[in-house]
Each structure stands twice: as C-alpha cells, then as structure tokens.
From TrEMBL:
One of its GO terms (molecular function) is electron transfer activity. Pfam families: DUF1924 (PF09086). It comes from Sideroxydans lithotrophicus (strain ES-1). Residues 71-93 are annotated as: Disordered. Keywords: Heme, Iron, Metal-binding, Signal. This is Cytochrome c domain-containing protein. The keyword Signal applies. InterPro entries: Cyt_c-like_dom, Cyt_c-like_dom_sf, DUF1924_SHP. PROSITE patterns: CYTC. Residues 41-134 form the Cytochrome c domain.
Length: 134
C-alpha cells in the first residue's frame, strides 16, 4: 500500500508542478482571450497550431518551428535574421510568459510572420497553454 501512496503523491506533485508554470501574465491573457470570445483552451490544439503551416517564404512553408525549432527547451534561430531565440519552454527559461505586453507583441509579430495574419484569441490561448506545458 505504501508504494501506491508514494506513486500517487509523486503524480500529484508533477501535476501541481505543471500547473505552476502559469504566470500572472498568462492568467491575465487567458482572461482577456475569454472576454474576446475564446474558451476551453487546449494544449493539444495549441500544439497542432504550433505545427500548422501558413505563409510560404523563399519556397519554405512557415510554421512556429521554422524559427523556434522542434525542441522548445533549446534555442531557436530566426529564419531571416539568423538571430538566436532563447528557449520557449518555461521549464528552462523561467522568464518566458511573465510579461503580458511582450507575449502579445510576439504573438502579433510571429503570427504575421508564420501565417500571414494575426492569431485569433482562441489560437493565442491554445498556443499559450501548449507553451506553458513545456
């Protein structure tokens, strides 16, 4: 019985650690996106949006991984400028997702770069949920 209790305690700790990656900024943004009509934010839908190809540039279909890479715990590299992009995963970069203004700035810029349009409130909420799980 004791090993089962230990396993349950470990699972509970992991679930709480995952939820702890949310920040006051992300909570503020989730509330804002809900006020704009979005709801039920889903990390799996955000993962699919992350991989969704949009704009074609220089013969390459763009998606979020084009610049951020597939392993969000590692740095990425901007396609046009070659500038290094710090890891997106808050598990290795705790400064990520702590400033709502910066998050909105980057959503606006990156959605236009990858998809050729601004993201909807639902897309932003889903992608933010996905990123916070990393």
């Amino acid at each position: 019985m004791k090993p089962l209790f230990t396993l349950m305690a470990l699972i509970g700790t992991l679930v709480m650690a995952s939820a702890a990656s949310a920040t006051p900024a992300s909570d503020e943004l989730f509330a804002r996106y809900k006020s704009e009509g979005a709801s039920g934010f889903d990390a799996e839908r955000g993962k699919a949006d992350w991989a969704k190809e949009g704009k074609v540039e220089d013969g390459v279909k763009m998606n979020c991984s084009t610049c951020h890479g597939d392993d969000l715990r590692k740095p990425g590299k901007h396609k046009k400028t070659g500038k290094v992009i710090e890891p997106m995963a808050p598990s290795v970069n705790p400064e990520r997702f702590t400033d709502a203004k910066k998050i909105e700035k980057w959503f606006k810029r990156n959605c236009n770069d990858a998809w050729g349009r601004e993201c909807t409130a639902q897309e932003k909420g889903d992608v933010l949920k996905f990123l916070l799980s990393k």
